[in-house]
Amino acid sequence: MDMQDFEAGDLYFDEPLTDEASRCLDCAAEQYAEGRAERSLMRAYFLEPEHPMVLVALYRYFYYQHRLEEALMVAERVLAVFAKRLELPDNWREITELRIGSGVMISMALIRFYMLALKGAGYLEFRLGRYDSAIERLEKVAELDSRDRLGAKSLLSIARDALGRRAPRTHLSAT
Question: pTM for this one?
């Protein structure tokens, strides 16, 4: 499937956001430099736990704070929320190109969002030194993104190289 082959349509940031959650996101942006954004972000999350803008803001906050475990939890949340919306299997490992095609009928923009979250989770797993699970996620993205529009193949190559360097080498000695 070509992940660039879509009409703009409704993008994830076009979904209506409550005024209070929007104020929380604005407040978090203002407080970020002072290190006080998390409380506002969490409030926005409790108000709108499935809203894409809130999830993206929370992900970015944790990522840029180098809190990769928390960023990975948010990426996992995105996968769960949007699998349901797109009528995909709960387990990303079970997604096929045919299932992605069905999801496209609901929203290509949300399919791209889902796939970017899966790629992001793979990247985070890699950064956390979990090469096997990083490779598994990135392989799934590469399998479903036939033209590599999301750029998973280069990350996959890097993760495979890192795994290869980490694997213990056994040397046979002649005796």
Answer: 0.85
